[in-house]
Specification:
By secondary structure, the chain is mainly alpha-helical. The protein is 50% helix and 4% strand. The chain has five helices and two strands; from the N terminus they run H-H-H-H-E-E-H. Strands 1-2 form a two-stranded antiparallel ribbon. Strand 1 (115-117) and strand 2 (123-125) form a beta hairpin.
């Protein structure tokens, strides 16, 4: 029992776990006004740093078991780290393969005219929505809501 109490806490495993949690939470940056250009790199590099720290901690735990703790939980977190790195790499590569849409309207550009049925089934065009009704000024903008399913 005195042998177990003399073992040191494996700080690299804790550091790896902290970086792994940061890597997972870094995906929330997409919802804030964070510059979009470095985000894929942040989401790829954080799990790699976490996995490197976890591997160093696991190396310590397995090569010097009399000194450091963390064989079991370090192995579990290391496996989670490998999964997070693999998922980050897949998203990083997958995001780069998305084709650019040349025909999509750009910010500030007027949308092309179209006609679709409204919720009552009557055909409504975008030009109709921008036209002025009797005695009212024409609207400056139209909010388009795309939804799946039916009401």
């Amino acid at each position: 029992m005195s042998d177990q109490s003399q073992k040191q806490s494996n700080g690299m495993l804790w550091l790896g776990l902290a970086f792994l949690l940061l890597a997972i939470l870094s995906n929330l940056l997409y919802f804030f006004k964070f510059p979009a250009a470095p985000l894929p790199w942040v989401n790829l590099l954080l799990p790699i740093v976490a996995l490197a720290a976890l591997l160093i901690g696991l190396f310590r735990a397995f090569t010097r078991p009399q000194t450091y703790k963390g064989k079991i939980w370090g192995s579990l977190v290391g496996a989670l780290g490998v999964l997070v790195v693999a998922a980050s790499a897949l998203f990083f590569v997958g995001a780069r393969k998305l084709p650019r849409s040349a025909g999509a309207p750009q910010v500030g550009q007027r949308a092309p005219d179209f006609t679709l049925p409204d919720s009552a089934g009557h055909p409504t065009s975008l030009a109709q929505l921008f036209s002025a009704s009797a005695g009212a000024p024409p609207p400056k903008a139209v909010l388009l809501v795309f939804y799946r399913g039916y009401w």
